Amino acid sequence: MQNLTRITRTRVAWLVVGLLALLAITVAVALAGGNPGRKEAPASPRLSEELRAAVNPAGVLEHAERFQTIADEHGGNRAAGTPGYDASARYVANRLRRAGYEVTVQRFELPTSAATLDAGLRETDVTGAREYALATDFAPMERTAEGEVRAPLRPVDAGSPTSGCEAGDFAGFPEGGVALLRRGACTFGTKARNAQEAGASAALVFNDGEPPGEVLLGALEEPAVGIPIVGTSAAVGEDLLAREGTSGVRVFVGDAASNHTTNVVAQTRGGDKDETVMLGAHLDSVPQGPGINDNGSGSATVLEIALQLAELGARPGNRVRFAFWGAEEIGLVGSRHYVEGLGEEEISDLSAYLNFDMLGSPNFVRSVYEGPDEVEGVFGEYFEARGIEVETSSALDGRSDHGPFQEEGVPTGGLFSGAGGAKTKEQHEVFGGEAGAPFDACYHQECDDAENLNRRAIDQFSDAAAHATAVLAQR
């Protein structure tokens, strides 16, 4: 009996030890919040500090300068469907591949737009005839008919914003002439249809109420018209009005230069795919200029964060994905194409999408996108801890590439330094700068070049973006 008792006690002791070990494993797994079979090394608790130190304005501005060079080498812009955009996408994709990321170049179709059509506009039959520049002086309207016309130019009540809004405005209009119309009061489609019905062979609509050099980028609603319709800057319109009755014009709208463009998407090779954190920025410019603030600043920041994350050898617990969108400027085409191609499970895997669209405005504000606490709070807490004042804004809801993600219920957030609107007195008191002046006076213009960026804004926003990336990649 004594021997049996010792054996039983020994077995009980080993049973207790086993149960305690099992309990310890269970507690450890619960505290880790993960699978005991998971092999990934824990991320550095100092990742935010390390990434912010690595991501600096010099690195961001190096990419911005590269985008400027690309624009200079390709007609002055990086618009979707153009060689300038394609070269920008190649630069980004090549840098990401060399850093070790899985890179996908996603091709998609473009709608017809000013960015994709070949076109020409010049005066004829006059001494010193002027040749106007596509994108800088004029642009075809979306859904315009193609064609080539050479005919006399005839203003149609061009001193009034109701120009061309009524059929009676075209009384006495010469058959086959080119109508010169002022923007305002009615839709572009109404003006265009009235011009066509009056016998016009083409129509020019010049801008009104905007900076003189800003090109009118218009879209024709259905039903479509069968003649070329072109928008011009106010300056071009006034030039042509001054020559009233003495000159004609040649208007040409041709085939699309390209009817496709791309998104560039890269992701870390490790990390929990069920908790994917995504950063994005649009890579295309408008046709009028190189688009270095809008949005070379956001693209350069996202690219530098990706490169420095790889350089640090960081292995965050969650997968991190970086996107560079095409065709944002003509309706969020690239980001919408990407989101529409995701399945329900892939969308549910996205724990957050962060958008960075314009981070270097000269007369900047610090705006944080209004969003769910788990995203907005990351930015808010970061700035608050450093005594940096910010404003929370819902003004960009649906207006940039986070829109398609928002619509699918993905938590979104981001940063914004201001576009063409004017800084208020209240914003001036908080952020400095000039009240009543635009946040970016070069917004959508030729002067949106590398000299247009505010280095202080780039410094503050890139640090905040790096911090949010590090925090959400480990959460």
Describe the SSE topology.
Elements: H1 2-32, H2 47-54, H3 57-73, H4 83-98, E1 102-109, E2 117-124, E3 131-132, E4 138-140, E5 147-155, E6 178-182, H5 188-197, E7 202-206, E8 229-232, H6 234-242, E9 248-256, E10 260-267, E11 272-282, H7 292-311, E12 318-325, H8 333-340, H9 344-348, E13 350-356, E14 367-369, H10 373-385, E15 391-393, H11 403-407, E16 412-416, H12 425-431, H13 455-474
Parallel strand pairs: 5-6, 6-7, 7-8, 11-12, 11-13, 13-16, 14-15
Antiparallel strand pairs: 1-10, 2-3, 2-9, 4-8, 5-9, 10-12, 14-16
Explained architecture:
The chain is an alpha/beta fold and 475 residues long. It folds into two domains: 47-111 and 259-474, 3-Layer(aba) Sandwich (Aminopeptidase), CATH 3.40.630; 117-256, Glucose Oxidase, domain 1. 36% of the residues lie in helices and 21% in strands. It has helices at residues 2-32, 47-54, 57-73, 83-98, 188-197, 234-242, 292-311, 333-340, 344-348, 373-385, 403-407, 425-431, 455-474; strands at residues 102-109, 117-124, 131-132, 138-140, 147-155, 178-182, 202-206, 229-232, 248-256, 260-267, 272-282, 318-325, 350-356, 367-369, 391-393, 412-416. An eight-stranded mixed sheet has the order 1-10-12-11-13-16-14-15, with helices on both faces. Helix 2 packs antiparallel against helix 13 (455-474) and helix 10 (373-385) packs across helix 13. The protein is elongated and about 75 Å long. Residues 1-43 have low confidence and may be disordered.
Q: Kindly report the average pLDDT value.
A: 87
CATH homologous superfamily descriptor of the largest domain: Zn peptidases
> How many domain units?
2
Strand content: 15-25%
Strand order of the largest sheet: 1-10-12-11-13-16-14-15
Global geometry: elongated
Helix vs. strand class: alpha/beta
> Strand tally, please?
16
CATH topology of the largest domain: Aminopeptidase
Round the Cα radius of gyration to an integer and report it: 28 Å
The count of helical stretches stands at 13
Task: Quote the distance from N terminus to C terminus.
Answer: 58 Å
H-E order = HHHHEEEEEEHEEHEEEHEHHEEHEHEHH
CATH architecture of the largest domain: 3-Layer(aba) Sandwich
Relative helix content: 25-40%
- Show unreliable segments: 1-43
Reported for the largest beta sheet, the result is: 8 strands, mixed
CATH uppermost class of the largest domain: Alpha Beta
